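Standup, Tuesday
Yesterday: got the pipeline producing structure tokens again.
Today: sanity-check two examples.
Blockers: none.

Example 1:
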Amino acid sequence: MNFLISFVYMEHFAWASFTKFSYKYRDKSGMADIGGYIKPFKWGSYGVAIGGDFIVWFGYDVGPIQLDPIYADYFVWLGFFKENFYLLIEHPCMHYIDRLDTLPLYWNSIRLMYRERDFEISGAFYIHSEKYQFLSRGTDWSFDIKSFKRFRERIRNEVFLAFEGYTFFALSRNYKKVYASFDMRGGFEFYNERGDLGIFLGFRPYDRTGIIRDAEGVPYLSLRVRGF
């Protein structure tokens, strides 16, 4: 028993954010996100990681508070890591809220990732099958490449100017079409080794991924907190 307990690691990381679009984009007015991951076991530099993300997309309702939930966007993964490298099995899915006549979208992928606190790059292979259609419905992607980078400039003590960029590229299943998304944001961040709190203005100049998450050309305001 003591031998097994010696592998318990329990490192964890969590985040939450709220984003409000400056105007209605199709049927969306904003989104809220909460997620995290844990590393429950570790053997030397190797270990197990489990994580997930839950996003609610908001539409428009009657009155000044526009927080009518229209989509529930889930994302769960499980895999192994060695220091900053991860090999993951992912299962994202998107469900329509209060629309019983609309089927959910879902897909599965295998992802190789390198992750630091302010930098991340990864590539994924998507699992499709004509025979076993429960593996995927709603995406044309065959594989993708994603990246994220954050820059900081200290203003005073733990207060920083922060700039972030996100990129996404995917190739279609017939390898003839490219899907892509670019997201950039800048703002103020309260930052230390335990976590950070930031408020950002952002913009997606190009956002054409082929699924209903797209929000191209919409300026937005985002409040985010992360903790280790």
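Example 2:
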Amino acid sequence: MTTDDSDCGCSDSRGSRRTFLKGLTASAGAGVVTSMVGDVFTQTSFAAETGGNVLVVLSLRGGCDGLSLVVPHGDPAYAALRPGIALPTGSLLEKGPLFGLHPSFAPLAPMWRAGRFGAVQAVGTPAPDRSHFSAMEKGEDADAGSSARVGWINRMVGLTGVGEPNDAVQLGYSMAPTALVGPAPTIAVSQLRDIALPGGDAAERRRFRSSLQTMWGANTSLMGHGMASTIATTDRLGPLAQADDPPQNGAAYPDGSLGSTLRQTARLIRADVGTQVVTVDHGSWDHHTDLGTSDWGELQWMVRELAQTLAAFYVDLGALGDKVTVVTISESVARPERTATTAPTTATATRCCCWVAASSAGRCTGSGPAWPTA
């Protein structure tokens, strides 16, 4: 692509992405996250104080094609490098001189116009890495040059000095991502109702709890501490786990794992147990074939599901949405050129664009000297 430093349609397009992202994460000073129960992926960090801001980090796993989401239609190289899959300028939403949104983002267009949804382009590691797994590890460690395997969320939580397992909850996959790896205690569950001891009914769970207490109550080993934390956590979060309040304010989530996970995330935020950071994994964004354009292919319906889910999430939250910021990232981004009429070249793994739902958005930031070249 070009290295033109032209404006992208907003007056502050030359703002620092680093400063912007630092501002997003400044509100997240929490507790941490990991365990072994659980299967869509959400990690949640809690702090001791309630009523605070919440950061939701949504990872689009597999390598989201950012150039098809925030489309650089104003760059003459874009259409030339992507015959067959370039989105026509006329189909884009909220167009500026350089960027426009994929038309399937229509459910979020009102938030864009209201200044509550925006995009940050050209965010990534300086050295391309074609391994998805290596790229995920580098981005989630976020500690270049260090040999320590401690994720940035775990480090953040560790700085607060809180260490109760119920300060941090992960919904979804039971295997924690690199961002959560580290010394801070964590919990992982597939869904909120899994925060419970095994057992067929309440009486059986009480007997099981009593047996565990007898066996491990006086044990001071790491396993003993872990068991004590398990018992305490299930006691404390039991009411939240067993409740199943419906979405609020008429919110209607689309079917699927993402909708289910963000619905539970909204429940967790409404419970006001001190949630500071929620992380959600959503997969299948690696489109080597059938990427499509605005009216055919796999990407257009995945973007529609993403937009519908985020729109429902904010309807569900109501006034609480003013305290919740959603950032989406991907561990890879496809190169501009295509290898066939249906897909771009194999992804170069790196961090890519960030989508933001917050109070200072409604713009695209990231053009200029850092805008990638072909």
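Quick observation on example 2: The mean pLDDT is 74. The chain is about 30% helix and 15% strand.
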